[in-house]
Amino acid sequence: MKKETYCLLEQYMLCCMTDTAHDKEHIYRVLYHALEIAKTEQNVKYDILIAACLLHDIGRREQFENPALCHAAAGSEKAYQFLLEHGFETSYAEQVKQCIKTHRYRKNNPPQSLEAKILFDADKLDVAGATGIARTLLYKGIVSEPLYCMLPDGSVSTGEQDTAPSFFREYKYKLEKLYSGFYTKKAADIARERQRIAADFYHSLFQEVNSAYQNGRDTLDTLLED
Predict the structure, then answer these.
(1) Handedness of CA 102, 64, 25, 148 (dihedral sign)
(2) CA–centroid distance for 192 within its chain
(3) In the CATH scheme, what is the code of domain 1-105?
(4) Could you tell me the residue ranges of all domains in the chain?
(5) How many Å apart are CA 136 and CA 79, to the nearest integer?
(6) pLDDT tens for residues 174-193?
(7) CATH code for the domain defined by 127-226
(8) Which has the least CB within 10 A, 60, 141, 181, 216?
(9) Closest to 124 measured CA to CA, from 47, 207, 26
(10) So what's the pLDDT on residue 20?
């Protein structure tokens, strides 16, 4: 890819990124993950891969404004139109579009091309380990969701049976389960290295907040008079 082309795509991406949890640094990390994965694969179309990585989250604003929209679908259309308007061939724009459209985990719409699979894996890696924990906490703060929910008996919920949103629920429903289903061996290897870090953080946080309630409540009960 020519540097001029890269700069054009990068500038468009920068104009679209407004979400703190899905900011430009997330885009660069996904791109760099993808390039690292691509080193271990054969016949990678780097012009397709780089463009798809740079533009994969440009539909986030639309989804944030209307949660009924899928940012992958919205972003793929935006990318397609942008590329056509700037003189790229239709076949190229279509391949980039398909990569972006399938980068979000959906069982009925899996990535097909090698570049789409690499983007999928690279994006998924940025939700793994310590980085994924930090990004999730950032997002929960943006939408004013709590770290955890309380059970009827006054204890801290692990998040497993929760219906209300929280960080613990997000961990149990999503973060804990994302370490399988990678398409490339390189991404799967990196994910395994990060899995323990995320699990250790969750368990440590749960133990800290849970013990605070258990010990604190007992102490408070002894100090309160009928």
Answers:
(1) negative
(2) 17
(3) 1.10.3210.10
(4) 1-105, 127-226
(5) 26
(6) 999 999 889 999 999 999 99
(7) 1.20.58.1910
(8) 216
(9) 26
(10) 63
How far from chain centre, in Å, is Cα 58? 14
Please count the residues of the chain. Answer: 226
Kindly report the pTM of this predicted structure. 0.86
Tens digit of pLDDT for each residue in 193-225? 999 999 999 999 999 999 998 888 778 888 887
Q: 58-84 pLDDT, tens per residue?
A: 988 887 778 888 888 899 999 999 999
